[in-house]
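Kindly review this protein for my students:
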Amino acid sequence: MKTMKRGWFLLYSLVITSIGMSSTYAQQSWNEDVDQFLDDPQVIEDYKNLEGLEQNNYNFIDRLRNQKEKVTEKLQWKEPPPTKPRIFTETKPYTAQLKEGSILTHVKSGKRVKVFREVIVKAKETFVGSHQTYILDKNGNEKYTTQTRNAINIEHEVTLRPQIDPIAVYTDKSNYHSEDKDLNFSTYLGFHIESINTQYYATIYRGEKQSAQNYTIEGKTYLLTEDTPYNFGLNLQYQFGYWDDPSIGTVTWSALHIGPSFMTSFWQKKKGRWNIHLNLFKSLFHESQKNPDRHKFSSVGMQLEFEKEFFSNYGNYSLGVKYTWMKSSVKDSTEYLENIANKGEISSFGAYINYNFGWTL
């Protein structure tokens, strides 16, 4: 019987030893139960008087089993309570500089493009601290995505820039209530090549060919103003050309026109802009020659020019197309011409190149 009691005592010691050899985390989990177990007077008493409590052995084992289940329950893994969903705050657009070589992905089409130079854009992180950033279009819509490291935030640098226009000149007001104002001008010098409709000449000279080649050297000067988008000036044109007709031979002409000019610019970018010119003119002289005779005309007309102007360090130049409409009548001739009193219309289409420079008076 003593052997059996010693066996139960060893079993109980083994359980306690097993519990004591558990990890620190486990001991912290069921520490309160162990204290309650050790402070239970019934258990302590049974433990001390184990040899004299043979009839309570089974009750002791049941209590020990219950205690083991409580400890085991404490040691079992329990799912952590559900965490609240992470709330992302709305990010604000900022001014960014895209690195050269950055890869952008179109939001809608998924098309990838590469940036070949550093550019200033508006950007917005997908969320605070994200690795992807939106590149916005001019309307503030999300057009591309790129890695955040490609869009360097320069918002702080932008706010540090002075708000004073570095190009403007600020002078003190005169003590004598007078102001010196500079007049700014812009001059365009151009060479034009045109194909003109010579039906009017064919009627006068009894010719057959309906077209001819014409060349124009033109100069326009505008007074630049800040109060209106339109610039007003003066244009001067010298025209010369020839009409080679199989029936009557070659007719040459030359003319000098003068008149007001109007210009407006739109769609201006860093390297250029688009311009529209409208010229009105009247001839100072307009003569033609068919050896050995000469003929004089009086002409009025208008000219519409549409051009792309390019900026450079050596002045600006432009390429454009033009349409000219002119009404002419014969004023004097050394030979008899049919329909000499009739007025006729001459129209032409052409292309030109201009060189533009500014000056101050």
